[in-house]
Design brief:
CATH topology of one domain: TIM Barrel
Structural class: alpha/beta
Number of strands: 9
CATH superfamily of one domain: Aldolase class I
Shape: globular
Strand order of the largest sheet: 1-3-4-5-6-7-8-9
Helix content: 40-55%
Distance between the termini: 30 Å
Order of helices and strands: HEEHHEHEHHEHEHEHEHHHHHHE
CATH class of one domain: Alpha Beta
Oligomer: single chain
Strand content: 5-15%
Largest sheet: 8 strands, mixed, barrel
CATH architecture of one domain: Alpha-Beta Barrel
Radius of gyration: 20 Å
Length: about 350
């Protein structure tokens, strides 16, 4: 979810669910150690529980970056070895590391040594011709022996050559049974399933087989599905917040961001899908897409969008409408109850 699950997106998602664990966009260890740390790592206390997703292949650098992440207050450090992009492969991190389980194990061991928060791993069920249950089991066993007890497994193999990152989100077919079998073989490990899960009903069905569910694109494109996570998956009694209540709760955060010199569109671009499937979704998206990016756009753009959404007005389109993008790796994790 490079450039998508930033701090503004996570604050918005936290207004929808108090319980789901939120994940940052993937950040390289080198960027953490050499870049603008506050820009990359600072986050609102309201985001907890929140995990930092790191990428890299050098144990010492990953360990140092993980220490920085823990000092910033993250509740979990996640090593992402599921991303198949060419740029990531050139840096020798992401999904290509599934071919080097011993190196991943050394990275995990180095990261765990100085930390008090857990270190987890996000991976695929395989890459290229490394495609059998035996290959996946061997990878998981080696990394688990280094001390990792929690794995987020995208139930789709990654083709590192010949397919684009977008194609790798659609091909080859999802194989949930491979992840279920992994959990059955390793009851001592926490196995969280990822890939193609678009409804809470589907998530509940998965929780009969695994320990948790990670939702990425669906949670971004249709964020209101998170509104019932606390009640349906965590057993809370309170009803889900209304869309209007979520927007009204976002206003003070947006005002503070504008007061620090930020732009309204930094926040608003993440909420375009809030009324997904509703009769007034088009008017809501259009108003925000046309007005929030303008220089000097103020909080009135957000308050006007609330009025439009409540009125259900949806006149003819006035030019192109920005649609929610199609990101791949954002994670919102719901754990099984009990």
């Amino acid at each position: 979810m490079m450039d998508w699950t930033d701090r503004h997106c996570r604050v918005f998602h936290r207004l929808l669910s108090r319980q789901a664990r939120l994940y940052t966009e993937m950040v390289t260890a080198q960027a953490v150690l050499r870049g603008d740390r506050n820009r990359l790592l600072a986050f609102s206390p309201a985001e907890h529980p929140v995990a930092l997703q790191l990428a890299g292949c050098e144990p010492a650098l990953l360990a140092e970056a993980a220490v920085v992440g823990e000092a910033y207050g993250y509740d979990e450090i996640n090593l992402n070895i599921g991303c198949p992009s060419d740029r990531v492969q050139e840096g020798r991190f992401g999904a290509c590391l599934m071919a080097e389980p011993q190196l991943v194990a050394r990275c995990v061991a180095a990261m765990r040594r100085p930390l008090k928060v857990p270190v987890t791993v996000k991976c695929r069920i395989g890459i290229d011709n490394q495609d059998s249950e035996r290959d996946l089991d061997r990878f998981i066993r080696i990394v688990a022996d280094a001390g990792c007890t929690s794995f987020i497994v995208h139930a789709r193999k990654a083709w590192l050559k010949g397919l684009s990152p977008k194609q790798n989100r659609e091909l080859p077919p999802l194989d949930y049974a491979r992840v279920w079998a992994l959990k059955a073989s390793h009851p001592e490990l926490e196995i969280i399933i990822n890939g193609g899960i678009a409804t809470l009903g589907s998530a509940q069905a998965q929780l009969a087989k695994v320990d948790g569910v990670a939702i990425g694109r669906s949670a971004y494109q249709n964020p209101y599905l998170l509104a019932d996570v606390d009640r349906q998956l965590f057993g809370e009694k309170a009803p889900p917040p209304s869309r209007r209540a979520v927007l009204e709760a976002l206003i003070p955060y947006a005002e503070a961001h504008l007061g620090r010199g930020g732009r309204l569109n930094n926040i608003v671009r993440h909420i375009l899908g809030l009324y997904h499937g509703q009769p007034h979704a088009r008017a809501f998206r259009r108003h925000l897409a046309q007005n929030a990016p303008r220089p000097g756009a103020g909080i009135e753009v957000l308050t006007e969008s609330i009025a439009l959404s409540e009125a259900g007005a949806d006149g003819p389109a006035l030019g192109a409408v920005a649609r929610p993008p199609d990101p791949s790796d954002a994670i919102v994790k719901a754990r099984a109850i009990g």
